[in-house]
Amino acid sequence: MSIRLGLISLGCAKNLVDSEHMLAQLQEAGIVIVDDVEQADVAVINTCGFIEAAKQEAIQTILETAELKKSGSLKALIVTGCLVQRYPEEITQELPEIDAVLGTGSYTNIVDAVRAVLQAPGTVYRNFGQIDEAEMEGGRILLTPGYSAYLKIAEGCDNHCAYCVIPQLRGRFRSRAMEDILEEARALAAAGVREVIVVAQDITRYGVDRYGRRRLSDLLRELCAMDFTWVRLHYLYPDEITEDMIQTIAEEPKIVKYLDIPIQHVSSRILKAMHRRGDADFLRKLFAQLRARIPGVVLRTSIIVGLPGETEAEFEELCEFLRETGIERTGVFCYSPEEGSEAAAMPDQIDEELKNQRRLIVEELQSDILDRFAARMTGQLTEVLCEGWDGETGLYYGRSYADSPDIDGRVLFDSAFSVEEGQFVPVRITGAQGADLTGNTETLE
Length: 445
Prior knowledge:
This protein is of the alpha/beta class.
């Protein structure tokens, strides 16, 4: 009798790619993949453990899925990923419903784990490989729509920011071989993928460890020669952006003019405490250069408010910078004191109420910037990747170059002709609806 397996992937896009690799291994082993864990014999939950909110989401998902074991429909529960890597002993002690755990360095052992939990019920299967040697190659079963896929070009991180535990969960920065990346990219293009999203914790560092120099520009030019419509970039470390990278992004029409550059803060003292390089003047000059060299570029960043010791003056400096630079997309997060991080042991921890007040101030500020962006876009003709049709509103919806999947808003549009999911169409922007733009298609002739 065949084994039916359902997988739930939590967390970031890089984690999603790991899930896709696991599914391919499972299918190759003859295991039947089902969309709904309620129909499965075995459930796999690939977890995130980056910040407190992600941990709570993972634990809640584990508990909800474990309820299916009581009804008899689910025989075994396997938990993988960052939460397991971070708490290898605690997770099975506190959640006895779990039958197997795989760390971030051993997700390639998923088939062994499935067989073990079914052959020896009641015994917890454990496998924790070396995170610095985690496998990055192999087939994938895409969990994204067929027209869009992530392309992970490296694993781990060497930046060691004071608030972050990613190096502990994912290991040192390791670039994939360019030939392996390009082989995977060619397969994605041949399968019909039209938007490829290049991801790593820091794509600007690509190649330094393997080739002795940055090779992101070389890689991007190769990708642009393939049959993709859009090449989207996540994430660029600000002080690693080179002249060559800027020139490549500006020159290659397939590279989406949308750059995700997490800055976290602008105060020199706060950045130093975070172990991040640069200051407000450097970032101001960088963003001005990008806007001058790449017409129409949309910038995205991430901000942390409430790092221990952040003063009102430092917070206001951050707000003034955001008002001045008009970064179109800003994700703002309250500092989370993560166990094992340097910042968790810093003095002058800020209370949650004040952190949330500061977060709301930045969100309100960002709302004004979004309104100005919508006004700037109104009247423009922009290419939109259709993602579906909403029967309730009678409108199609999709994303422009300024919208990354599951992060930004959408474009809601009417059309006089039929539009297929995954089709690129020209849309004239007519206004905004909250965080979404609205518009109408124009003739394809």
